[in-house]
Amino acid sequence: MKIISIANQKGGVGKTTTSINLSASLGYLGASTLLIDLDSQANSTSGVGIKKEKIEKSIYEVLIGKEDILNSIMDTDIDFLDIIPSSINLVGAEIEILGMDGREYILKKILSKINKLYDYVIIDCPPSLGMITLNAFTASDSILIPIQCEYYALEGLGQLINTIKAVKNNFNSSLDIEGVLMTMFDPRINLSKEVINNVKKHFPNKVFHTIISRNVKLAESPSYGKPCILYDSTSNGAVSYLELAKEILDFSKYF
Amino acid sequence: MKIISIANQKGGVGKTTTSINLSASLGYLGASTLLIDLDSQANSTSGVGIKKEKIEKSIYEVLIGKEDILNSIMDTDIDFLDIIPSSINLVGAEIEILGMDGREYILKKILSKINKLYDYVIIDCPPSLGMITLNAFTASDSILIPIQCEYYALEGLGQLINTIKAVKNNFNSSLDIEGVLMTMFDPRINLSKEVINNVKKHFPNKVFHTIISRNVKLAESPSYGKPCILYDSTSNGAVSYLELAKEILDFSKYF
Ligand SMILES: Nc1ncnc2c1ncn2[C@@H]1O[C@H](COP(=O)(O)OP(=O)(O)OP(=O)(O)O)[C@@H](O)[C@H]1O
Ligand SMILES: Nc1ncnc2c1ncn2[C@@H]1O[C@H](COP(=O)(O)OP(=O)(O)OP(=O)(O)O)[C@@H](O)[C@H]1O
Ligand SMILES: [Mg+2]
Ligand SMILES: [Mg+2]
Questions:
Q1: Is A41–B130 a contact, with Cβ atoms under 8 angstroms apart?
Q2: Chain B residues lying within 8 Å of A41, measured CB to CB
Q3: Buried b (16+ CB within 10 A) or exposed e, A69-105
């Protein structure tokens, strides 16, 4: 079972869009996948069509020990894809977890209970580097970093890399960077190309070949509660994320 | 002195772009303005051309009481616009403030020391609703909410409104919503128009007439360290934010 966190504290860079569409593509290719929504905004939850009112047991209840992880897993419209939803309750978790014993290892301990139940676990992180994201990093094998092809994209990277290093040194020595994914690429904008070149210099050999271009179907599909591969499988958005899944599956052969 | 927070916990909706370009436009129109960067990513700071290495006294040192607010104010390239920069140190502030006396009122007390020094104070908030954003809300007269013309934009609004109400009931009874600003509008995308109609239903009479369209100059100007009005004053981006500033100044006549 490989656990990958989708993280970047910069907001709106495509964490949720990547979490949903990568996990749906992994499921589509036959790898059994669990998507965990760790953001109190619950965008991954609604993006796969789960109504917030229907959720009784979210990741919040699992983190604070009120619910067993197995009871919080829900089906989605895609074979081989399950989800643990989020809810508004998660807002309070950041502070609650601070006061708990072994606070950095809470999620790691929980996920050890479902070890080997899935091929992949994909964790959608909130736009911050607090206790919740720290738990995701401690529980993960690797981190996939979505980076928007925009100027501010490079600004926060130092902070993110330092946090990953700190977690690797203190809580999870096997943590690695799965790769850097360029998102919302627009070939008509020079800045987009400049940012990609710049990122490749910072992360030699870590930038995925797959680049996700700006694509209206990716922005529309969550309003139908469907991953793009179900909404419009021929769209650039769906095809790109399928390519990304294949790239990750290929790498995994060597694990 | 009117204090307006630019806030929305959803990431990447245009908080920083609005903070920089609205405050630059207010300054351009002759209203003396102070921009405060409350996000540890320090995007507003670099977006007005301040190099992170040059900062000795950021908002972090002011919040924890190590530095007087007057010593942290810096000039910008625009007359009538000053800034209090952010820095990476702010990452630790969320937890440090939790343990301080009168923790919700720290920023309010600090800003009372510069009362009447400026016509406007604009606060760029991080993409979360933690202690830092809570401090901004407690210190503010009103909140300007940027909303992206995208599906997920509506999801987190309930959480934001509840937080504003909670602050109004417990810490700052005069807090109000300055208005809702639609950002990154793309007339070619149906979803964009649907989101605007939906937001207008949720916030009757609170949505600004000015709508900010997607505009490449707005995305490029931070890479030159300039507000859009200095980078390309004839661009749609610069013109829209000038319109917004006029709309706000107009409203203020009745205060
Ligand atoms: N390649 C793309 N093309 C077009 N729109 C996109 C693309 N990727 C993401 N979007 C849209 O951009 C917005 C931001 O993306 P998303 O919500 O996935 O980012 P995020 O990093 O999860 O945000 P947050 O920081 O709030 O968690 C969403 O409205 C999404 O639909
Ligand atoms: N109207 C616009 N047209 C084109 N690009 C825009 C527009 N507004 C913002 N952007 C770009 O979109 C990205 C997100 O905007 P911005 O950083 O202002 O959002 P934010 O809400 O401050 O993000 P965060 O949640 O990380 O603080 C930036 O790269 C910015 O340059
Ligand atoms: Mg998200
Ligand atoms: Mg910002």
A1: no
A2: 9-10, 152, 155-156, 159
A3: beebbbebebebbbbbbbbbbbbebbeebeeeeeebb
